[in-house]
């Protein structure tokens, strides 16, 4: 079972998400919270694998909660919930350590599938959405320069792997594209996260976009 924590200050949204996720045989909503402070306590108490986190809440907001949760030992995957897929608030959540984001209007079956993806440690962020978010970032040029400085010490192969993360590819997909063993790709990814000071694959993928490693479409 995949234990999930739902965080939103709107009880109707929590009820809606509970209903959808509860229809899946392998997902269990173990708790819900109405603000960020409750969310952090619920993570410690219930140990979910995935947290669906609303960003705009009174009291302790989603951004603060994401930073606190991802700083915990063995943190769950935190997926930001937003109303619009081009919400510039989301990019701050990704930089705070979120594993990706979902639009609240995501169809039920897609939502279930994406929760499973997050539970497996993969990015819940489409490349097109990443490009839009980077483009909307108010400090885009400065971020781009910083990103290029951060990746300057990577080898050519590491840059190839990082670009693939920017496309949202899994380790298996990267291995096929670059003709590497999947275990080798996993080693590259783990090493790069440390080198680049990225909390997860999503942050690394976002960095790839900011550095211009991912082709625009």
From TrEMBL:
Residues 3-119 form the Response regulatory domain. Residues 147-212 form the HTH luxR-type domain. GO terms for molecular function: DNA binding. SMART domains: HTH_LUXR (SM00421), REC (SM00448). Keywords: DNA-binding, Phosphoprotein, Transcription, Transcription regulation. The modification 4-aspartylphosphate is found at residue 54. The keyword Coiled coil does not apply. The keyword Cell wall biogenesis/degradation does not apply. Pfam families: GerE (PF00196), Response_reg (PF00072). This is DNA-binding response regulator. It comes from Amycolatopsis bullii. The lineage of its organism: Bacteria, Bacillati, Actinomycetota, Actinomycetes, Pseudonocardiales.
């Amino acid at each position: 079972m995949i234990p999930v924590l739902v965080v939103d200050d709107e009880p109707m949204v929590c009820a809606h998400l509970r209903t959808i996720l509860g229809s899946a045989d392998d997902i269990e909503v173990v708790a819900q919270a109405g603000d960020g402070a409750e969310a952090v306590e619920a993570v410690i108490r219930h140990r979910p694998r995935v947290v669906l986190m609303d960003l705009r809440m009174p009291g302790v907001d989603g951004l603060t909660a994401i930073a606190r949760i991802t700083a915990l030992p063995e943190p769950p995957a935190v997926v930001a919930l937003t109303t619009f897929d081009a919400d510039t608030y989301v990019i701050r959540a990704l930089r705070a350590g979120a594993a990706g984001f979902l639009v609240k209007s995501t169809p039920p079956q897609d939502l279930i599938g994406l929760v499973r993806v997050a539970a497996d440690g993969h990015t819940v962020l489409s490349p097109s959405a990443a490009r839009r978010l980077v483009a909307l970032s108010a400090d885009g040029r400065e971020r781009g320069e910083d990103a290029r400085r951060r990746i300057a010490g990577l080898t050519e192969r590491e840059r190839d792997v990082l670009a693939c993360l920017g496309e949202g590819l899994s380790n298996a997909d990267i291995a096929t594209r670059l003709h590497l063993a999947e275990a080798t790709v996993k080693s590259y990814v783990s090493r790069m996260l440390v080198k680049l000071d990225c909390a997860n694959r999503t942050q690394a993928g976002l960095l790839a976009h900011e550095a211009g490693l991912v082709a625009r479409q």
